[in-house]
Design brief:
alpha+beta; 200 residues; Nucleotidyltransferase, domain 5; 14% strand
């Protein structure tokens, strides 16, 4: 098992993923779906959380960044009309994550993106104090061979021969795929980005 750059063990952890209405922290994008999976110290998924989120900003498909994001995530506007409001989802997520103890690190494939989008949706006063841990994308990138480009989540999954549960670019499916990749890297010593997925 590797040691992360923060000194935290790679497991246990909660891996989150968000699907959003845009990709820019400075526009009117916000979280539309949040997914999370809790992994115990043996890297086994023990619980999951998933919910759509009623947008806090209008979804204007005439805006290029919004239209692009919605094309990627394929979340129907009609489903968002029926989604719970942001406060309801936040309270449910906090309750769920609290079931595993206050010190379990929360991480993501790109922690900065998901954390910042969550801050845009729920506010720094709520999201900031969460026990954020290491960034899985950065941790895996640090292990890739020199001269090799970073790989996407789907690219790494393909290299490692991992099968996805659910659709790509949906929150819980991406959180679980991140967990599967992290398990391969952190517990099995798989090397990232050498084209073979070989073990160290």
């Amino acid at each position: 098992m590797i040691t992360t750059s923060t000194g935290q063990p790679p497991f246990p952890c909660i891996i989150v993923d968000s699907e959003t209405s845009g990709l820019d922290f400075h526009d009117f994008s916000c979280v539309l779906e949040i997914g999370a999976a809790y992994y115990d110290r043996n890297a086994v998924e023990q619980a999951a959380f998933s919910s759509l989120v009623k947008p806090i900003f209008p979804i204007d498909l005439n805006e290029q960044s919004i239209a692009k994001a919605m094309e990627v995530n394929q979340i129907a506007l009609s489903a968002l009309d029926e989604a719970p409001d942001s406060s309801t989802v936040w309270n449910a997520l906090v309750y769920w994550s609290g079931l595993f103890g206050p010190e379990i690190p929360i991480t993501a494939w790109p922690v900065r993106f998901d954390r910042n989008m969550m801050i845009k949706t729920w506010g720094i006063e709520r999201v900031g104090p969460m026990p954020w841990g290491f960034c899985i994308k950065s941790e895996t990138a640090a292990l890739r061979p020199k001269g090799k480009k970073r790989m996407s989540l789907n690219g790494m999954a393909e290299e490692f021969g991992l099968k996805r549960e659910g659709a790509a670019h949906r929150a819980l499916s991406d959180a679980r795929m991140t967990g599967a990749i992290w398990r391969e890297v952190a517990l099995k010593g798989r090397i990232v980005g050498d084209g073979t997925g070989r073990s160290a």
